[in-house]
Amino acid sequence: MTDIHPVDGARLAQLCRAIYDKLREEIYLAAAQEGFVDLRPSHSNVLRHLDAAGSRIVDLAVRADMTKQSMAYLTDALAKLDYVEIRPDPTDGRAKLVVLTPRGHDAIAALTRLSLAAEARIATHLGQAKLDAVRDGLAEIRAALEEPRQ
Amino acid sequence: MTDIHPVDGARLAQLCRAIYDKLREEIYLAAAQEGFVDLRPSHSNVLRHLDAAGSRIVDLAVRADMTKQSMAYLTDALAKLDYVEIRPDPTDGRAKLVVLTPRGHDAIAALTRLSLAAEARIATHLGQAKLDAVRDGLAEIRAALEEPRQ
DNA sequence: GTTTATAGACAGAGAGACTGTCTTATGCAA
DNA sequence: TTGCATAAGACAGTCTCTCTGTCTATAAAC
After folding, report:
1. Which backbone phi and psi does B141 adopt, to 5 degrees?
2. Residue of B26, B126, B139 lying closest to A137 (CB–CB)
3. Measured CA to C1', what is the nucleotide nearest A43?
C-alpha cells in the first residue's frame, strides 16, 4: 500500500505550526505562573499592536487582520481584566482609545522576557549563530509571502 | 515615552505564527478552488495523522494532542463530508476505525501538492539552498522544544 | 444643511476546542 | 465464571474566539 503522507513532517507550514504551538504554550504557561493567569494567547492580538499613546479599535483590528467586532470583543475582555483601559478619544467623539494599564505594561514586559528566554533555551541547543540565521530566513520568508502572487 | 514593544517583530514565535497563518490561508484557499470547499484547517488535525489502514479516534487524539471528544467531533465532520469513513474495528468491539475515502485521498494529495507549490514559490525568492537550511533549522528547533525543560 | 463615511455597539451564529458523565466492550483475575 | 478495572467512544453542556449583519452617533465633504 502506498504511503498516505509522502513528504509530511518536513513541511514548512507544519514546522512553523508545531514550533509556534510549543512556544505559545510554554510562554503562556510561564506567564500564568507569574500571576498572569487570565492572559490568553488571543490577547496578544491586542497587546502586540498597541501604541504607547493608545490605539483605536479599528486600527488594532486592521493591524491584527480581524474585524473590528472581534477586536472590540478582545479589548473589552482585556479591559475587564485590567490590562487596558478604554476611554474616549478627545479628538474624535466617535472613537475610543485603548491604552495600557500598569498591569498591561507588566504583562507585555513579562511576555517579552519569556519569549526571549525561550529563544535563549533554543540557542543552547542550536547555537546563537544558527538560531539567528533561521530567524533571518524566516523574516525573509514572511516578506516573500506578503507579496501578491502573480 | 519608552517603547512598549522593545524587540517585537523579530521574535521566533511571531515569525512562525505569521508564516503558518499565511501558508494555511493560501493552501486552503487554493484547495477550495480545486473543489475542496468544505475542507477546513482543523481537518488537517485528522488527515495528518491517519494511518493507511485506518486509525482509532483515541490514537488520532493522542497524535494531534487533543481530547478524544474533540477528535470525534472532527472525524464525524469529515465523515459527513465524505473525506473519511468510520467503521467498526473488527478486532475490538469497542473501537471504530477512521479510514480515508477516495475523496479523502484526493484531498491529502491536493494539500500536499499545494504545500509543495507554496514552498517552491518561496524558493524562488530565497533560493532552494537557503530554504532548505531554514527548514532544517526549524526541524532542529522543534526537536529541541520536544525535550523537557530542566 | 444634507449626504456620505467612519467608529463603535448590539445581536446572533458557528467553529472548534474543553470538561464531565455515561454506555458498552474488553480483558484479567479472583 | 463471575466480577471488576480499563478502554473506546457517545452524549450533553460550556467556553473562547471568530464571523456577518444591522444599528447609532459622530465627523467630514459637498
Report:
1. -65, -45
2. B126
3. D17
Q: Looking at the domain assignment, is residue A32 inside a domain?
A: yes
In total, how many domains does chain B have?
Answer: 1
Written as one string, the DSSP assignment of A130-141 is HHHHHHHHHHHH
Q: Residue B150: pLDDT above 70?
A: no
Helix, strand, coil percent content, chain B, rounded in steps of 5: 65, 5, 30
Taking the C-alpha atoms of residue A140 and residue B9, their distance in angstroms, rounded to an integer, is 12
Query: What is the tens place of the pLDDT at every residue in A91-147?
Result: 999 999 999 999 999 999 999 999 999 999 999 999 999 999 999 999 999 999 987
Could you tell me the pTM of the whole model? 0.91
C-beta atoms surrounding B22 within 10 Å: 18
Residue B69 belongs to what domain range? 12-145
Phi/psi at A87 (5° precision): -135, 160
pLDDT at A126: 94
| Residue A127 contacts strand D, CB under 7 A | no
Q: Which amino acid, one-letter code, is at A54?
A: G
